[in-house]
């Protein structure tokens, strides 16, 4: 048992550390190649190796001065880190020391090429994919490190998944809406308190297989789909060599701050609108106006509908004109 826990700990830490270092090395190497091409020295020039050496020095300094002390405090269960369970200090430090510098060098690479009239690297796939994949790995590791990775999981979802009944809110008159319980077509429903669970019997019950540990991986990728599509627009040549690179990467970097909040926290909805959907709505509208269909209309509609739904259901429905029950009391 002890060896299994040690192995899981080592694998988790290696994955997180690789996600911290590899994107930095890749992005800074590509930036060094652009600077060397501008100066005409190639990969054997002094500027190239100076930037590469600087990236190694930066990663080493961050590891020894920030990452290792943070991990020590987390595993030592320091009170100021453990008691505040609504945010994740590891995710915050990861975004600050790895994700933000990567996006900063992507912006700098575009600016260097624009000012020198160079068309060398659009950073289309590998660097951006590594940045987002490292964030996904960090997020998944943080959410799954406390779970058992062997054997069957619990039938009920853990605290990292929301139950159907827990999302129920009282009506304005104080009553709590009830979900009709049906036992037709092989379904079995059981209601206990505010939680409603469903199981299915019959020959097709294997299709209802579900495990919260596997769902963590799905949630990890779905959480970043909008940001990934936003960064994909930068790979278009018309956008890459224009002034739109800076605002796109800045807002993508801000959207990454959502990972600092624990999953399914009530604050996550507001942060999603403020840090992602609302800024992305204006950026996508500007891209479509200046460059045409360089980003799908589907995501523009998604940003618009999310913003409108958030404002309507959280603010406008509280107005007296929308509260029909109060009007007839």
Automatic annotation (TrEMBL):
Checking InterPro entries in the record gives: Uncharacterised_FAM23-like_TM (IPR020394)
Q: Where is the composition biased (Basic and acidic residues)?
A: 154-163
**Membrane-spanning intervals of the chain:** 7-27, 47-70, 90-110, 122-141, 238-261, 281-313
Q: Where is this region: Disordered?
A: 154-176
Entry annotated with the keyword Cytoplasm: no
This protein's source sits in the domain of life called: Eukaryota
Provide this UniProt record's keywords sorted from A to Z. Answer: Membrane, Transmembrane, Transmembrane helix
Q: Carries keyword Transmembrane helix?
A: yes
| Name under which the protein is recorded | Transmembrane protein 236
């Amino acid at each position: 048992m002890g060896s299994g826990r040690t192995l899981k700990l080592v694998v988790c830490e290696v994955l997180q550390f690789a996600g911290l270092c590899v994107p930095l090395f890749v992005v800074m190497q590509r930036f060094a190649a652009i600077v060397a091409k501008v100066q005409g020295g190639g990969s054997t020039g002094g500027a190239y190796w100076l930037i590469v050496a600087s990236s190694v020095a930066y990663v080493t300094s961050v590891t020894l001065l920030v990452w290792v002390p943070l991990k020590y405090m987390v595993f030592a269960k320091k009170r100021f880190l453990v008691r505040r369970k609504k945010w994740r200090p590891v995710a915050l430090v990861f975004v600050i020391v790895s994700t933000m510098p990567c996006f900063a060098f992507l912006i700098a690479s575009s600016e260097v090429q624009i000012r020198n009239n160079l068309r060398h690297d659009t950073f289309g796939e590998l660097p951006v994919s590594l940045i987002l994949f490292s964030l996904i790995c960090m997020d998944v590791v943080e959410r799954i490190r406390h779970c058992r990775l062997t054997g069957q999981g619990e039938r009920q979802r853990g605290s990292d998944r929301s139950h159907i009944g827990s999302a129920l809110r009282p009506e304005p008159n104080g009553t709590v809406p009830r979900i009709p319980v049906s036992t037709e077509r092989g379904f079995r429903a059981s209601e206990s308190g505010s939680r409603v669970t469903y199981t299915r019997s019959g020959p097709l019950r294997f299709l209802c297989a579900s495990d919260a540990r596997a769902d963590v991986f799905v949630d990890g990728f779905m959480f970043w789909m909008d940001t990934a599509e936003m960064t994909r627009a930068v790979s278009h040549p018309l956008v890459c060599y224009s002034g739109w690179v800076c605002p796109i990467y800045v807002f993508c970097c801000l959207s990454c701050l959502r990972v600092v909040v624990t999953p399914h926290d009530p604050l996550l909805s507001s942060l999603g609108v403020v840090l992602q959907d609302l800024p992305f709505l204006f950026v996508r509208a500007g891209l479509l106006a200046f460059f045409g269909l360089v980003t799908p209309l589907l995501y523009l509609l998604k940003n618009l509908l999310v913003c409108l739904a958030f404002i309507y259901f959280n603010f406008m429905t509280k107005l007296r004109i929308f509260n029909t029950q109060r009007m007839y009391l």
